[in-house]
Amino acid sequence: MEGNRRLEVLERQLCGAQLAEAPELIDDAALSAICPKQLQALLVHDNPELRSAVFEFLKDDIFKPNHYLSLMEFRELTLQRLQRFVAADFGGRGFDVRDYMNDPRRFMAGLECLSFCDYSMAIKAGVHFTLCGGTICKLGTAKHHNALLPKLNTLELPGCFGMTELGHGSNVMGIETTAVYDAPRGEFVITTPSNEASKYWIGGSGQHGKICAVFAQLTVGGVWQGPHVFMVRIRDDSGRLMPGVRIKDHGPKMGLNGVDNGQIWFDSVRVPRDAMLDRYASVDAAGTYSSPIPTVSARFGTMVGGLTTGRILIGQGAVTACMIATTIALRYASQRPQFGDKLIGDYLTHQRRLLPGLATTYALQLGMKQLKVAAFDAAKPDAKLVHVLSSGLKAAATWNRVEVLQQCRECCGGMGFLAANKIGPMKTDMDVDVTFEGDNTVMMQQVARALLDDPATARLNAPGSWDRVALAGTPHVSAGQLHSLLQAHERSLLCQLRDAMASASSGKGGKGAAAAAAAFEENLDLVVQLGWAHVDARCMGYMLDEARAAPGGAAAGVSVLAQLYGATRIEARLARYLQVGLLNGADAAALRLAVNKACRQLGSGGPAAPALKLCDAFGIPEHLLAAPIAKNWREMGQTL
């Protein structure tokens, strides 16, 4: 039943089935009536009391930015901040790792708030609670939950996540760390067989970690059973390394220096039989392996499925950074004159650099909202849909963050380079998000692969002349037209790739699957474009859905943002739209004018510009903006 519903949704998405249009012609009066509170409720609709409590908690002086710390001082501060967090009582109920399973919305909301303050703290918390704690929750059983989770809740047992190896990042199935069961002693022997097999970039291991969820290739009775997870103590209660464990601190990094990353080797480290997380597979005392999941590949897929929550948090953190940066940059632009009395925010060039990022931030936030609904609110989540959305949105959100933060930094001039104005430190701290929790290029390939493997795509026809949307000569480029174009673009890429793979597999010699796989690799540039196209079309659809359902104080803002989002996503890939005949030169000219019009509508007016109300809707407390230029740039340096 779920599969049929997914096919219907995908077919509707790709074939451009039209629903009732969102309001298209938005006048200045409607934009001036934007209500930030209504928009905020639309953007973030879960756990408002907890979010408010965490934001209030983050007013404490310990959470104020300090850019003068040494590496070791920053690490110590990050640990102290996290200790404060775990000790806090948010409305009578503190943060609990068991909510990873029991109340995932609350779990996510608590951790999301930390990204507004400091990314090192957010990532250290994410590694400890989501990757280590979440793995125990999802893959462990009662004995693991009872013994370990209370100690994770208090930070008595700081946790790490040992998946990545020096020689294996994205290829988790190929990890080389081994776990061999010694039946006479009832123990697993964890071994690092080569330097390439050492666990690498392990957050929290360099200094503070005491236990690690270690992914290792399991062998029982001489039979390989694939990757499994083992809880291994790496330091004792006093912080000394356990016997057979070697750790090298990675030291200073490009950013995120509050997190103590390290490299770990295991020299025949023995752990008890109960150290294996055994929800989906177990080894009895006699050395008999059993699992309800019959194949290695299926077991592996189940075990790594828990990474979705971490992937969502990374994507959400990137969107949060864009909220902060665009708010700072647009506030500064609304009050900073240059070349006379004209504000820099009133120049079209400035608007074109900042406002598409604002529109994309809204689109991705609404995408993240729908992803959370699919992952956490459905009675029986559609695992394939969640995988596609989490992979695509993580990649799109983090790549977008790179672009948005750079534009915001440049548009603030030298002020954007000043650490006190927050954008610069966010850029360096967060640059890792494009490669951790899944390399973005690989994530987009997974999106494309899922689309190509879906039976619904076999019935699709490539776009033809009837799919061309004439933008030229119309009085107004509508969001509905732009959505249709985004859908047709996705379909054109999907059909081109599908046909290339089908042609290769049915060619001379009947090479079949191997030839299709080779064709996939020969077209990896289009594969990544397909992943992007799917995210673009989905997010545009979500924006239109929200605009149709939104109250009057929110609908106008979302509608204009949807027009700007759709137009700029097409403009960024204009060459392909022209190449496949979805647009012509006159349409491209009309598209440019549509972008300019939306930018003018949103960005003009100085402190009264509608864009500022759209930023207010993010609900960022003033103490977490923490950028002097977001308040009054004229006072910079007055207090020494």
From TrEMBL:
<dbReference type="Pfam" id="PF01756">
    <property type="entry name" value="ACOX"/>
</dbReference>
<dbReference type="GO" id="GO:0033540">
    <property type="term" value="P:fatty acid beta-oxidation using acyl-CoA oxidase"/>
</dbReference>
<comment type="similarity">
    <text>Belongs to the acyl-CoA oxidase family.</text>
</comment>
<dbReference type="InterPro" id="IPR009100">
    <property type="entry name" value="AcylCoA_DH/oxidase_NM_dom_sf"/>
</dbReference>
<feature type="domain" description="Acyl-CoA oxidase/dehydrogenase middle">
    <location>
        <begin position="160"/>
        <end position="269"/>
    </location>
</feature>
<feature type="binding site">
    <location>
        <position position="203"/>
    </location>
    <ligand>
        <name>FAD</name>
    </ligand>
</feature>
<feature type="domain" description="Acyl-CoA oxidase C-alpha1">
    <location>
        <begin position="305"/>
        <end position="452"/>
    </location>
</feature>
<dbReference type="Pfam" id="PF22924">
    <property type="entry name" value="ACOX_C_alpha1"/>
</dbReference>
<keyword id="KW-0274">FAD</keyword>
<dbReference type="GO" id="GO:0005504">
    <property type="term" value="F:fatty acid binding"/>
</dbReference>
<dbReference type="GO" id="GO:0003997">
    <property type="term" value="F:acyl-CoA oxidase activity"/>
</dbReference>
<feature type="active site" description="Proton acceptor">
    <location>
        <position position="437"/>
    </location>
</feature>
<protein>
    <recommendedName>
        <fullName>Acyl-coenzyme A oxidase</fullName>
    </recommendedName>
</protein>
<dbReference type="InterPro" id="IPR006091">
    <property type="entry name" value="Acyl-CoA_Oxase/DH_mid-dom"/>
</dbReference>
<keyword id="KW-0560">Oxidoreductase</keyword>
<dbReference type="GO" id="GO:0071949">
    <property type="term" value="F:FAD binding"/>
</dbReference>
<dbReference type="InterPro" id="IPR055060">
    <property type="entry name" value="ACOX_C_alpha1"/>
</dbReference>
<keyword id="KW-0285">Flavoprotein</keyword>
<dbReference type="InterPro" id="IPR046373">
    <property type="entry name" value="Acyl-CoA_Oxase/DH_mid-dom_sf"/>
</dbReference>
<dbReference type="GO" id="GO:0005777">
    <property type="term" value="C:peroxisome"/>
</dbReference>
<feature type="binding site">
    <location>
        <position position="164"/>
    </location>
    <ligand>
        <name>FAD</name>
    </ligand>
</feature>
<dbReference type="InterPro" id="IPR012258">
    <property type="entry name" value="Acyl-CoA_oxidase"/>
</dbReference>
<dbReference type="InterPro" id="IPR002655">
    <property type="entry name" value="Acyl-CoA_oxidase_C"/>
</dbReference>
<keyword id="KW-0443">Lipid metabolism</keyword>
<keyword id="KW-0576">Peroxisome</keyword>
<dbReference type="Pfam" id="PF02770">
    <property type="entry name" value="Acyl-CoA_dh_M"/>
</dbReference>
<dbReference type="GO" id="GO:0055088">
    <property type="term" value="P:lipid homeostasis"/>
</dbReference>
<dbReference type="InterPro" id="IPR036250">
    <property type="entry name" value="AcylCo_DH-like_C"/>
</dbReference>
<feature type="domain" description="Acyl-CoA oxidase C-terminal">
    <location>
        <begin position="483"/>
        <end position="631"/>
    </location>
</feature>
<keyword id="KW-0276">Fatty acid metabolism</keyword>
